[in-house]
Amino acid sequence: MTDFHHLDHVKEQSTSKRTLWITLLLTLFFTIVEVVGGIMSNSLALLSDSAHMISDVIALGLSMTAIYLASRKPNSRYTFGFLRFEIIASFLNGLALAVIAIGILIEGIKRFYEPQEIDFKLMLIISSIGFVVNLVLTLVLHRSMEEEENLNVQSALWHFIGDLLSSVGVIISAVIIYFTGMLWFDPLISIVISCIIFIGGSRIIKESFLILMESVPAKFNLEEIRRDIGNVEGVEDVHEMHLWAISTDHYSLTAHVFIDDKIQPFCIILAINETLKEKYGITHSTIQMEHAGIHPHGEYGREFLKHREEKHQEDSPAPVQKQAMT
């Protein structure tokens, strides 16, 4: 039997699966209702919300796919498993949010110059139903996030926060139009909604992009970790160090260390791994032990050997000179 890793690199997130299934089914139902209502009422605010709901259905479909793929074990080709698809799906979700927001903004500006008649009663009924649905879904997703950290659920939560605000905006718009007749308030609300949606989408894009670029996760201080590894007995220098997230809450670290050849290297590795696990929660690390004389690393290695020799000379006691006997 082939063993590709000592860790499975899988995510079994039952809470997230259940939450996303409930959310997907309710969203699909209300999307149909809102699209029909938006067309019949001729409300841009309602249509913009329905367009966002369509993106929610697509986004939730991607999220479900990501969660099921994340539960598959690694193989000889995908040795890290399929966890990274969660991040790819989140990036696409964030991108969809941003594109939809720009589309709503453009249409809203057009309607400022060409106001259109609106069936405010139908608009109010549909938006009120939408408010209740979106409020329930937002609370469900928020509770799921508190139980299990998942960037897909977080991106879905941002979708529904946008939907909730959209529903509030459409209700306010319908009431104001009814009492004042100011049709331009409908596109104004749409523009405000589009800005909120764009902010949420850009945050998801940024977070998923940083993971895809294998940047150091914001929760970690690389220099602090380097110092802690350097303080392990037998470690003389830490270099070629990398720390990245495979997926949310799954981190990997690699580092090269020059070691004192008088100390058992297996003990050093054990101490480093314990430090990473206990202090930072990093359980997947690859530490390469090196002897500075054999693995010099060019100018860096030569400078290390030079400084080590200078330190040894400083630490060595000065020779005692014997006085000549008279």
Give a short summary of the structure.
With 326 residues, the chain is mainly alpha-helical.
How would you describe what is shown here?
- Strands 1-2-3 form a three-stranded mixed β-sheet.
- Strand 1 and strand 2 (250-259) form a beta hairpin.
- The protein is built from nine helices and three strands; from the N terminus they run αααααααββαβα.
- It has helices at residues 14-41, 44-70, 84-113, 120-147, 151-180, 185-212, 222-230, 265-280, 298-315, and strands spanning 235-247, 250-259, 284-290.
- With 326 residues, the protein is mainly alpha-helical.
- The chain is elongated.
Which segments are poorly predicted (pLDDT under 50) over 5 or more consecutive residues? Answer: none
State the separation between the terminal residues, measured CA to CA: 82 Å
Helix content: 55-70%
Average pLDDT works out at 79
How much beta, percentage-wise?
5-15%
**What structural class is derived from the secondary structure elements?**
mainly alpha
Key phrases:
326 residues, mainly alpha, 3-stranded mixed sheet, 9 helices, 3 strands, elongated
Q: How do the strands and helices of this protein lay out in sequence?
A:
Elements: H1 14-41, H2 44-70, H3 84-113, H4 120-147, H5 151-180, H6 185-212, H7 222-230, E1 235-247, E2 250-259, H8 265-280, E3 284-290, H9 298-315
Parallel strand pairs: 2-3
Antiparallel strand pairs: 1-2
